[in-house]
Specification:
321 residues, 6 helices, 18% helix, globular
């Protein structure tokens, strides 16, 4: 098959073998996996040697050549479209004139970005608040002080006023906000309390990933094992994870480095079936507790979000086996 003039291509090296096609393509395009999956399903990506059905989950082989059309970049002089209010469900645990604390559902993108112009948490909150969200972070990130990955669930604080946004942001910068996550991870532990202080930086090859790297930014996560279920050669553990820094993908990176990747994490762990369990649809990571000082009253606010249904279903399955 000949090469189209507009196509770009890359040959898969030994070190890249086994990587999913959508993950590889997202990294090369510097776009989201959803964007890459759309291109694959539209037939805008091809492979040599050809395969009968090219799916986003296809595992690349050494010597494979991937061809794709480069994405059309938006005109940098065009202003981004302002997010529009959308009547979408949102679980609000606390609200006053200055801020909200929401329990973000898994699968929800926090703010509009490439490939996610609508259907985000910001769109839902604009509808709920009648447009009253802090604009300090820009039009696309109205009210957003910190963020969670699309497939991570749990607590987020959102600012309604610029003053609240500034003061909450300062608390995050000074590491005064206490964040605790729950994770279901692969494997059992000999020590029930472990601290990981390995530095984190962008992965040198796979640009959509982070990695433990010398010279990276300092990072600290404390892990407490709450429960363990030995299963087959690995088992499963329920962890309490306390963040002392806020690096991108920090918990996921540290757990993968320690040999206990988060269940369902397709970016930082190879697919592995736990005996008696279905493969999770997303990484089982949940922002369970959040505590901070109210930016107006100075009072301490501490909230907790219960484990979501997919967590409890896995735990119930482990208890039954």
């Amino acid at each position: 098959m000949g090469i189209n003039e507009m196509e770009q291509f890359a040959q898969i090296a030994e070190a890249q073998a086994g990587q999913r096609l959508d993950v590889f393509l997202a990294g090369r395009l510097e776009r989201s996996r959803v964007h890459a999956q759309g291109l694959i399903r539209q037939g805008a990506v091809r492979l040599e040697p050809a395969v009968a059905r090219l799916a986003p989950s296809f595992r690349l082989r050494p010597g494979d050549i991937v061809y794709w059309q480069p994405p059309v970049e938006p005109n940098p002089t065009d202003p981004p479209a302002a997010p529009q209010p959308e009547d979408l469900p949102v679980d609000i645990l606390y609200e006053d004139a200055d801020l909200l604390v929401v329990n973000k559902a898994p699968g929800v993108v926090v703010h509009p970005a490439a490939g996610h112009a609508a259907g985000t948490l910001v769109n839902a909150l604009l509808h709920h608040c009648g447009g009253q969200l802090a604009g300090r972070a820009g039009a696309e990130r109205l009210g957003i002080v910190h963020r969670l990955d699309k497939d991570t669930s749990g607590l987020m604080v959102v600012a309604k006023t610029n003053r609240a946004h500034e003061r909450l942001g300062a608390q995050f910068e000074r590491r005064e906000v206490r964040k605790e996550y729950a994770a279901l991870a692969r494997g059992t532990w000999r020590q029930l309390r472990v601290t990981c202080r390995e530095p984190i930086a962008r992965h040198p090859v796979h640009r959509q990933k982070m990695a433990v790297r010398a010279g990276g930014r300092s990072a600290q996560t404390d892990f407490l094992v709450e429960r363990q279920w030995p299963r087959g050669r690995t088992g499963v553990s329920l962890l309490r994870c306390q963040l002392h820094t806020g690096r991108t993908h920090q918990i996921r990176v540290h757990l993968a480095y320690l040999g206990h990747p988060v269940l369902g994490d397709s970016l930082y762990a190879r697919a592995h079936q736990i005996p008696g369990l279905e493969k999770p649809a997303r990484q089982l990571l949940h922002a369970r507790r959040l505590a901070f000082t109210h930016p107006a009253s100075g009072e301490e606010l501490a909230l907790e979000a219960p484990l979501p249904a997919d967590f409890t279903q896995v735990i119930e399955s482990l208890d039954r086996v």
